[in-house]
Amino acid sequence: MVSILNDRRSGTWPGLVRRYGTAILSTGFVIWIRSLLQPWLNEECPFSLFYLSVLLTVWIAGTGPAVFAIGLGTLAAAHFFIPPSSSLLIDDVPDLVQLIIYVFVNCVAIMLFNRAERQRDLAEKRSLENERLSDDLRKADLRKDEFLALLAHELRNPLAPIRTSLALLERNEGSPDVVRRMREIIHRQTIHLIRITDDLLDVSRFCRGKVELQIQRIDLRLAIADAIEMVENAFVSKSQRFQSLIPDDPIWVDGDRVRLAQLLANLLGNASKYTPEAGRITLNLELIDELASIMVSDNGIGFAPLQAERIFEPFVQIDASRTREYGGLGVGLTIANRLVALHGGTLSATSRGPGMGSCFTVTLSAAASEASRSNSRHDDFAAPAWQTPCQSKSSVTTGGKSLLLVEDNKDASELLAELFRAEGFQVNQAYDGVEAIQKATQSHPDVIIMDIGLPSMDGYETARRIRRSRTITGIKMIALTGWGGPTDRDLAIKAGFDLHLIKPIAFQTLLDHVEALVRHASQADSDDKPNLIPA
User: Could you list the residue ranges that cross the membrane (predicted)?
Assistant: First the structure.
């Protein structure tokens, strides 16, 4: 019985035999019962018991066998219980009416049963779907909790030495050498915090599809050189032996040099992280069948072959224990994989097992070799002259130049103000958009450095009102903000900013940009506004 109920929709021959056999057996059973009742019923109610066979069949075997049972019941009633006996002809009108009612009622019953069954199946599917969604939500909630715990751990790591260094500096008891070392520690840990933030922002942009590439034809060797420069300190700090096998001839690809360098730096940094001190790391670049292949291999901890796909998932690390020996958020390979995909390439990972090292291979489509020679030299990738801020402090006289800082974070504003005062600027401060307009009107500064996320009035609207004012003209404005997408730069252009810089930024870089604007404003032909440059 259970087997038949389970395959009531089965189309296999064994299933069909069982289902239609149910119709035959149930009809035969009803014929036997009706025959036993014949002395009492005679010719009355010839179809009454056959309703049971149809209902039993539709419940056990499904629609097709139930319709078959209707036909069998009709033939059995006509042959055995409706006069003339042993004939299939029905001449009596009342018997014909009973037959019509029998067929109609059973068809309605079958349809109602099917409808109820569909609703039950739908309810079961919804229940299973709800269980799956609930399970997914529980897993997502667990991953969220794990990620928040991981993020808190990774943030505490650099914050702890920063806090300790500040405590030592507050005592004013350290020698100049100690102060220098404390400053170096704070600088290193701040850079680490910035990298964590940048990685999180990159993952967020990838998830929202907001990453845009600046495609140009480049020599892939240059991106590799950039990547090596970014991670060489990691190799030195762990006394690792790094070897790069780069061909003498250029290998051209159509790609974003900055992003290609980023993904390769992630692969090299990942290799350094999971390779012990004095370990070996190799980068090999070659051209194979119109494909540029970059292979980063190491003799580090490796991974199980079954983990080859999982390691590209966000926030996944081979070492997920609480020891957190290797640190990091586990997003470096995720970012690298997404960047390779955006370039139309592939990234694969292989390892013979734990302790056997690993190998990551990037494959990109090679471009035609007839690229201009200008792309083959590092110098030709430098920014145009108008984009390059002045690097010499002596080239611009900042004494007497006025600056307005608009920042709602008072600590950040005070620190920047002190740094600019030390460079000879006259600095005013405002903490919201309305106050910024008032102070700009009163003091008419040479340069305004403004945050975007301001209370009462955001930086875009504040800049627009300053530009529309007839009493405030010739002021250079810099947007210094944590919003760094292409859309944000476009909004800054429309609002009237001269530059769009992204927090956090090194003070010297910010000072160079300010000096470049001051120099530009001091020129006789300074009517044209320089284009926006990203930090």
Answer: 20-37, 49-76, 96-116
